[in-house]
Amino acid sequence: MLLASLLLSLSGLVRAADPTPVFDVHVHIWEGEKSVKEYLAQVAADGQQVTRFGGIHMAVLGKVAETRSKNDELVALSKRYPMIPIASVHPYDGDAAFAELERLAALGVRAIKLHPHTQKFDAADERVLAVCKRAGELGLVVLMDNANILPGDNQKLFNLALATPQTHFIFTHLGALEFRFWNILPLARTAKGLMEDNIHFDIAGTVVLAADSPLEEEFVWTMRNVGIDNLLLGSDFPQLSLKKGADALDRLGLTEEEKRKIRWGNAERLLLKERPKSVP
């Protein structure tokens, strides 16, 4: 009996030491399988447990064949690793961008990444609106950079989401150090018919800056205002490690249930559940 009690106690210690699972939605796959292996090696060395991770590519304007090839590479890698392919198009590639969206949806891809600064487009451009609208019709979630590198970033993305209510967006970095803007959401939700529940965020990078800073309390207030159910954890590898983001999240004083949702629950609901398509 004493031995059994001791073994039970030891097993409890082992379970307590187990890493908390994370769905990392923000991993840049710059160099194909090499990037995937480097990411997984870093995660293992840091003692992190990843249930899934989002492998990101960003299309270059005019390089349609390269875009298709890189998207296919992500799809292939997702069959060998616990990765979901977050593919890409360039909104200024016209019909080629729409054709690629159709192809990606047929392949079972569930998300794309767009980045106004890196891809050099204006988020307020009608071509961006058209691509995002079509992505939503095809059941694709749109990740869009929201680090406020470009002027008017928050306002443009907010209006883009209002104009495409069927499309679910993950605005990455939660506005970075301009996160205050997003406290408009609780008020916007009270305006009848103004918006759908289609705005979500990852907190990649920004959570690392906010934890233990003079902004921490306001950042946590913002997280709760935009809705814990709308927040996802991302590393922004290779720029930052998953451990940095996960450790920073732990220091914010959130409840265990809030952290569970941000670490993996919200991402699984948003990115692993097939979204309905409204048009063939």
UniProtKB/TrEMBL annotation:
Keywords (A to Z) from UniProt: Lyase, Signal
InterPro entries in alphabetical order: ACMSD, Amidohydro-rel, Metal_Hydrolase
SUPFAM superfamilies assigned: Metallo-dependent hydrolases
Alphabetized GO MF terms: carboxy-lyase activity; hydrolase activity
An individual GO BP term: secondary metabolic process
Gene Ontology CC, one term: cytoplasm
Domain Amidohydrolase-related: 24-271
Signal peptide: 1-16
PANTHER family recorded: 2-AMINO-3-CARBOXYLMUCONATE-6-SEMIALDEHYDE DECARBOXYLASE, ISO-OROTATE DECARBOXYLASE (EUROFUNG)
Protein name as it appears in the record: Amidohydrolase-related domain-containing protein
Gene source species: Steroidobacter agaridevorans
